[in-house]
Amino acid sequence: MIEQRDDVVTSTALQQQQFLTVLSRDEAVMRFEAALAPTPLGREEVNLSDALGRVLDDEIIASMDVPPFDRSLVDGFAVQAADLVEASISSPANLQLNQEIISAGTTPTIAVSLGTATAIATGGPIPRGADAVVMIEHTEASTLTPNAEIVVQRPVSPGQNIGFAGSDIVRGETVLRRGAVIGSREISMLAACGVDKVPVIRRPRVGVIATGNELVAQGMPLRTGTIYDSNNPMICAAVSESGGIPANYGIVCDDEAALRGTIMHSLAECDMVILSGGTSKGAGDLTYKLLADLGPPGIIVHGVAVKPGKPLCLAVCDRKPVIVLPGFPTSAMFTFFDVVAPLISRLAGLPERRRAHISANVPVHVPSELGRTEYVMVSLVERENGVVAYPLDKGSGSVSTFAQSDGFLCVDALADAVPAGTSADVVLLSSRSRIPDLVITGSHCLGLDMVVNHLTSSGHIVRLIAVGSLGGLAAARRGECDVAPIHLMDPTTGLYNCSYVSPGLELIKGWTRMQGLIFRKGDVRFDGAGPEMALATALSDPDCHMVNRNQGSGTRILVDKMLKGATPTGYWKQPRSHNSVAATIAHRNADWGIAIVPVAEAYGLEFIPIAEEHYDFVLVSERRYHPAVGAFIEALDSSVVHAELRRLGFRRSSEV
Ligand SMILES: Nc1nc2c(c(=O)[nH]1)N[C@H]1C(S)=C(S)[C@@H](COP(=O)(O)OP(=O)(O)OC[C@H]3O[C@@H](n4cnc5c(N)ncnc54)[C@H](O)[C@@H]3O)O[C@H]1N2
Ligand code: MOO
Residue limits of the MoaB/Mog domain (predicted)? Predict the structure, then answer.
């Protein structure tokens, strides 16, 4: 291991590569396309069974008639229509049966002459002489004559119940045109015409490389400071979804020779290379520097005035696109979706995908960075008076934001916010979003996940939007949800939740969660202390760091009540969940905080009980009789949910 001298660390830290000129999104795409001039790749032939989703690179001209011969469309008797012109109930016609039965796949041998009929099955070839087929249910076997005869009591018109050769597709007809995307319907036509090899546009082979010393592949253990590589699996899947073939070159650490080797190797084997990470200004960010050496025209764009996605780097080497997506997962996903997916589809010859838009009300103030066009991921909720778009804000590092959003809205680079109540245009990410029948907006709890799991397994579609207790309460007051889970203590009475219920809302009891002071095992400052003593110790020692909770959370109200105005070291560290508090303490970045007992147990921390908090549900009264709301109230009392709550260390309020 190389020892890091302080002066080397400092000088490396100062070698920070600046972005090239930061361009607008449209300018960046325009310059990249001008340098690349992307056109569909060449042709290849695939078996019909592999043609699904591919793009035809030629017209398909039928080399045969479909059907190839005149065939019967019903089970019945092939006849000459002229024999039955006068047939009626009062004057039925008798036809003598020919000595053959034509089933599908056989060749008729006997011609149908006047006064005769031949039994024929659906799909059987029409025999010579016959010009119509009478359905079996419109005939009777004759009992009057010794010879085999049928009696027919109604006429048929010439051609009736016959599918003529070429009536579906005629030989020489253009069955499918160049550029058609082959789906099951197209495959049916190709198959009927006997096409076994299909000329299609070659799919781009896309090399995918993750960069960073901190990355670990799934299946391997994580060391301190490392994370699982989520970008490569995501990008490979997204390449397939866009019409390309992913080639995963794995994780390459921040080593110049290794990274250069993998880039060169993938460039030789692929039509396009996508890297992620190492685009920004960090001292370990090598990728950009390596691309700059790859030869003309090289880097076309490095830095785009969008959020997320500012460090996007677009290069062209050997007429192939080389793209470096930002390392942060949301940034990588969004820039892939916005810039890379359309390019892969274009190379694969797929038509441009048009995204549906919807107008929605943004109920909360959304701050935005001036100078960058900002894409805000939103979760949509449909109410009687329109669609509401809740911003999902977990930052660029999140892997869940893009996955859980229904769409996004765009904030102009010159705007510093979207004011609450704005009507915004939302671009939908999927046309398949299912409209939820129950919307729960407020504080998240693992117990709530159990209730929701119970509801979804009984067929309900539930939308859970975690915006904290106060956010949920505000949404309930505006009628934007059905139920708002809250755990808010009234600082004057010390009672939970009831004083926050205003007209139009009602309270449904949930469960209680024991909250307490959590600390690492063996920390003698807290060992054996009660809550008052532990708090006094923490407040008297400036080296004893706390980790607080975010404003708006129920726990923060409890913390502030306990601290009585004191702001101990670490007070301004304010993560958004019990788990973050526990992880910060477990990783020794803080020494104490307030969280609930199951979280302390999950992180192997000690727990000094302080108070039971009540996690209850504010119900929008006018929604009470909606079936899904009824199902939710019932689920709270189901034995399965009770057992799950107990397992998590919570007590249903009715059991308290
Ligand atoms: N001083 C500045 N710092 C940063 C700026 C800036 O303008 N000035 N830009 C920020 C922005 S915006 C972004 S986005 C990130 C992008 O940085 P990089 O593209 O160089 O990516 P890394 O530094 O390698 O990683 C960032 C982040 O993402 C994680 N990561 C990387 N690869 C993966 C992967 N395959 N799977 C999961 N997570 C991954 C990595 O661990 C880092 O946490 O830079 C900001 N910095
Ligand atoms: O561009 Mo970064 O993607 O804002 O986080």
Answer: 207-346
